[in-house]
Amino acid sequence: MSDRELTHVDAGGRPAMVDVGAKVATRREAVAEVIVRFPQDVAIALREGGLRSKKGPVVDTAIVAGTMAVKRTHELIPFCHPLPIENCRIEAEFVDARDLRIRCTVALTHKTGVEMEALTGASVAALTVYDMCKALSHEIVIDGLRLVSKSGGKRRVEHGRMVGQ
């Protein structure tokens, strides 16, 4: 199979879960990030309020929600394997006056990677921030969800680009 073929399709062209039974378990890690962009006045209000909204602590709640999403990715995305997550870390910080970057790092030792778990964790954390802040503005934008890096499997990604084989 070339690197450009779909992996979740069987020989007959039907959807199928990838068989990872013959793969070797290795340490695998993936990092995903997303930006939550606030209108200037909302970003100022959030910072002045200690990153709290009327619904509570925004970042802390987003971290919990993102972590829960990582652990349930297999229930949300068809053909994702249930995985014994060993580490999940979600960080959120303002990278400029309006942009809150959420980064989700997921790791385990297993036969399959955790890219989907990292992407799901980052996106659900961002959705949680939106939900907790939408009373302040509906002009909040979630932008640029991406895989930043992955390691431990056959392919490695760094800064969103495939590296080596």
Structure description:
The protein is α+β, with helices and mostly antiparallel strands. The chain has a domain at 40-152: Alpha-Beta Plaits (2-Layer Sandwich), CATH 3.30.70. Helices cover 28% and strands 32% of the residues. The chain is built from four helices and eight strands; from the N terminus they run E-H-E-E-H-H-E-E-H-E-E-E. The protein has helices at residues 40-48, 58-71, 73-76, 115-133; strands spanning 26-37, 52-53, 56-57, 87-94, 99-110, 141-151, 156-158, 161-163. The strands form two sheets. Strands 4-5-1-6-7-8 form a six-stranded antiparallel sheet, with helices on one face. It has a two-stranded antiparallel ribbon with strand order 2-3. A hairpin with a 2-residue loop joins strand 2 and strand 3. Helix 2 packs antiparallel against helix 4 (115-133).
Quick structural gist:
Helices cover 28% and strands 32% of the residues. It has 165 residues and is α+β, with helices and mostly antiparallel strands.
Strand order of the largest sheet: 4-5-1-6-7-8
CATH structural fold name of the domain at 40-152: Alpha-Beta Plaits
Alpha carbon gyration radius? 18 Å
> What composes the largest sheet?
6 strands, antiparallel
Low-confidence stretches: none
Q: What is the CATH homologous superfamily assignment of the domain at 40-152?
A: Molybdopterin cofactor biosynthesis C (MoaC) domain
Q: Give the overall form.
A: elongated
> Given the structure, what is the number of helices?
4
Assign the structural class, choosing from mainly alpha, mainly beta, alpha/beta, alpha+beta, or little secondary structure.
alpha+beta
The overall pLDDT, averaged over residues, is 91
The SSE string, one letter per element, is EHEEHHEEHEEE
> CATH class of the domain at 40-152, please?
Alpha Beta
Q: Could you state the oligomeric state of the chains shown?
A: single chain
